[in-house]
């Protein structure tokens, strides 16, 4: 699943190319991906891109026919979605149901992108909106962990009194925006903290350590993603992971074996020596992470 660093990488890439270009075509290949009808997606045709930004894991392309009435093309790549960029957009006809393409956007210079989604479980979401906050997922977002206003005290306030495992807190978009399964594993490993630790039980020192690990892990991942084209971002993410997705490998800190806990259609990875005092975590508690 693309998370904040990869989404920011896509935003930086698009923001370096799209402003000043006019949307010439918007084609929906998977109608289930389009979550709005007012304004219609076709209203974007003829508008000029002003900027590209990020809200949590949502990408927001702002475009307008004039400065008084901007529209926003907002999309969330979900678990298996991705953006495929073309300097010269293919002229092939998109056949609904016969392609992984969910949406194609063309621009006035011949460039464009496809939003694609692999697998049978389709959850990629596309919105046309007058304001970003009109998108329900954006309206529910918590603070961005790299926002300068989000300091250690604000982080501590979010954790206070929460009888929830810290892994679940980090993944909950209504609490903190942009962190998902992969980077929560990486943050907790950097903080040497068990994913099962209860947020309410963390000491001041724990909170300080976790906040620093969150800031550093995300900042480093964003720096690694910066400047890379979409085709390279997934590989850059995988190469940068220290424990996530590395079950059976050696922890880069202590050399212990990286372990996994499986739940639903996902898993978490951790180092027993670094994070749990050598204890192996039990699956039976993991359902609480999804609450």
From TrEMBL:
Is this entry keyworded DNA repair? Answer: yes
Q: Which residues form a coiled coil?
A: none
Q: Which GO terms describe its biological process?
A: base-excision repair
Q: Which SUPFAM superfamilies match?
A: Glucocorticoid receptor-like (DNA-binding domain), N-terminal domain of MutM-like DNA repair proteins, S13-like H2TH domain
Residues making up the signal peptide according to the UniProt record: none
Q: Which InterPro entries match?
A: FPG_cat, FPG_N, H2TH_FPG, Ribosomal_uS13-like_H2TH, Znf_DNA_glyclase/AP_lyase, Znf_FPG/IleRS
Name the cofactor(s). Zn(2+)
- Tree of life domain: Bacteria
* FPG-type domain residues: 242-276
The GO molecular function terms of this record are: 8-oxo-7,8-dihydroguanine DNA N-glycosylase activity; damaged DNA binding; DNA-(apurinic or apyrimidinic site) endonuclease activity; lyase activity; zinc ion binding
Question: Which keywords does UniProt give here?
Answer: DNA damage, DNA repair, DNA-binding, Glycosidase, Hydrolase, Lyase, Metal-binding, Multifunctional enzyme, Zinc, Zinc-finger
**Annotated TM spans:** none
Q: Where is the Formamidopyrimidine-DNA glycosylase catalytic domain?
A: 2-89
Q: Which reaction does it catalyse?
A: Hydrolysis of DNA containing ring-opened 7-methylguanine residues, releasing 2,6-diamino-4-hydroxy-5-(N-methyl)formamidopyrimidine
PANTHER family linked: FORMAMIDOPYRIMIDINE-DNA GLYCOSYLASE
Family label: Belongs to the FPG family.
What is this protein's record name?
Fpg/Nei family DNA glycosylase
State the organism named in the record: Microbacterium schleiferi
